DNA sequence: CTGTTAGCGCATTCAA
DNA sequence: TTGAATGCGCTAACAG
C-alpha cells in the first residue's frame, strides 16, 4: 500500500540526494555520477515514481499535447486521419486531446477555448466549412494549427488535403475514354472545400463542350442524400458521378430499385474509397484518397510548425483512380 | 499584438484587485462584490484571459481528463464508444486523452504509463483479451477504471458490455423457429470476451440435442477471416452463424462465389449491426448492440467511480434481434 | 467581502 | 558534479 502520490521529493529523500539531482537523472540534462544515477533509479523504481507531466507542463510551458478537432469520430474517413496523426505524434511523445464538434459551430468555439486553456502545443482541425471562425481563433492564440481536408491561406495555419480536383479530372478522363458522354454529378454541400473542388473539376471537364450532356444536383455526403438525388434526376445519364462513396452507395441502391443495371445501363462512381467500396455489389469505381496519410502529413506539418516556425504551407496529396465493376468499359 | 501568456496576475493588476479575487470570480467560490466582478471580467476580456487548466490541475490534483485506450480508432464499433463517452464527459467538463494500442500489449503498457503520468482522473479501456495486464496496472495506480466490452471482477474496475450471450440465444431461437436445423458457427478469437460469450450461447443451444447438426470454426473478427472459414466448411448448413458482421460479409461473398443463394440455399447472420449491415445485398440479419450507449454507460460508471467511490460494478446492455433478408423465414 | 501567502511537482538558475 | 532556492499559474487557507 503506497501513499497517494510519490513526488520527486520522495525519491530525493529516499535516495539521499537533492530533488535537482533526481530531475537531472530523469531529464539527462547534465552529468550526474554513475553512483547517484544508480541510487536515484533504484529509489524511483522502489517507490514507483514517474515524473508528473502536469507539473512538467506548467514549468516548461509546453504540454506535449495536440488538440484534435473533428466533426465525427465515427466516420472512418475522419478517424483514419486521427490514427495517422496519432501514430506519428506518439513516437515523439505527444498525445492527442480529442474533441468532436459534431459539426456544431458554437460547440466548436467552446471546445477551442477548452483546448487553448489546456495549453495545447498545437491544433489539428478538420472543419466542414471552408471558412471557419476557428481559423481566426487559432491565429489570435498563436497556436500552430493544421487544417486537414481544407485549404486556406492564412498566417499560422498550414493545410493538408487530397488533390480533389486532379482526382475527379482523372476519373472523368477515364469515363470519357470508355465512351461515356452524358453525366450527372451528385455533389456534396459546396460549402465544404473538397466538394467544391470536385465540383469544379467536373464542371471544367464538361462545360462548354458540345459532345457532353450533364446535370448537377446538390446534396450531402450521405447515403440518404444519394438516394434522394437520384430520384430528382431528370434523366438517367451514361454515368452518375458522385461526390463521395456514401452518395454512390445510395445512388446505386436507388438506381437498381428503379430497374437499372449497373454498369450495363448506367455507370456509377464515388470518391474516397472507403473500406466498403470494394465490398459492394458491384464493387465501386472510385478515386482513392488516403486519409491515414493525410492525418500523418498533417501531424508532420504541425511538428515542423512547432519546432521550426514554418507556419504557412500547403500539402496536396495524390489520389489514385480505382477502376472496379460499377463502370462499364465500353458503350 | 499581445504578450505570450496572460496570467491571473496580469488580470489582477489590470483590474486593480488581488489574484485571489480574480480566482474567486472565475470559480464562484465565495462572494465577490458586483463591482469587482465587473472589473475583473472586463479586464479579463480585454486581455483575453482564460484560466490555465494546467496550473489548475497541478494545484487541485485533478485534471478533468479521462484516458481512453482503444485497439483501433478506425473501427466504427470502437469509435462509437468513444463518441458515446465523449458526449457525456464533455458535458461535465472532462476531456478525452486518446490512445490507440493497435492491440499491441507492449505498447499498451507504455501508453498506460504515459496516461498515468499525465494524471488522468479515470481510464476507459477497450481491451481485446479478456485478461489483460493493464487491469492490474489500473488497480495498483488506484485510478478508477472502466472496461468496455469485457467483464472481470476486480477492485477499482467496473465493466460495461452487451449481453452477448442473450443476443446469440435470441438469434438461435429465431433460426430454430424458422426451421433451420444445421448450423455452422464462425467464431472470432475466443481470447476476446465477446467471442467467448457468443460461442458459449451457440454451444449451449445446439449441444447434446439430436435435432441439430453443427460445426464450429475459429478465426478473427474480419472480412477475410469470414471468407477463409467458409472455405473450410465441411458442408454447407442451413444457417451460417457468424461471430460478427464483418465475418458475415466475408461469408456471404464467399458463399455466393461458390454458387449458393442467400437466403434460399443458406441463411447468414451476424452480430453488431454496423452501418453497412442494412446496406449489404441481401441486408444482414444480425444482433444489434449499441456501441454508442456502451461508451456512454461506461462514462457514467466512471464518473460515479470518481465521485462516489463505487468501484466495482458490471452493467450488461440489452441487444436487439434485427431480422433482415439474409435469413429465410421458412424452410 | 478582500488581500496575503503557501505550496501543488517540477526544471533551472546560481552557488558551492 | 551537486544542492538550495526560485517561480511556472493557480487555489485555498488564513487574516483582516
Write a brief structural summary:
In chain A, α5 crosses α12 (291-308). The first copy, chain A, contains twelve helices and twelve strands.
Question: Can you give a write-up of this model?
Answer:
Two copies of one chain form a homodimer. Chain A is of the alpha/beta class and 331 residues long. Chain A folds into two domains: 8-51, lambda repressor-like DNA-binding domains (434 Repressor (Amino-terminal Domain), Orthogonal Bundle); 64-330, Rossmann fold, CATH 3.40.50. Chain A has helices at 8-15, 19-27, 34-47, 53-60, 76-90, 105-117, 133-141, 164-177, 193-206, 223-232, 245-257, 291-308; strands at 65-70, 95-100, 122-125, 145-148, 157-162, 182-187, 213-218, 239-242, 267-269, 286-288, 314-317, 320-322. In chain A, the strands form three sheets. The first copy, chain A, has a six-stranded parallel sheet with strand order 2-1-3-4-5-11, sandwiched between helices. Chain A has a four-stranded parallel sheet with strand order 7-6-8-9, with helices on both faces. In chain A, helix 7 links the parallel strand 3 and strand 4. In chain A, helix 10 (223-232) crosses helix 11 (245-257). The longest helix of chain A is centred in the C-terminal third of the chain and has 18 residues, at 291-308. The relative contact order of chain A is 0.12. The mean pLDDT of chain A is 93. Chains A and B meet through helix 4, helix 5, strand 2 and helix 6 of A and helix 4, helix 5, strand 2 and helix 6 of B. Chain A binds a DNA duplex (16 and 16 nucleotides) through residues 5, 7-9, 17-24, 27, 29-33, 36, 51-52, 54-61. Chains A, B: GO terms for molecular function: DNA-binding transcription factor activity; transcription cis-regulatory region binding.
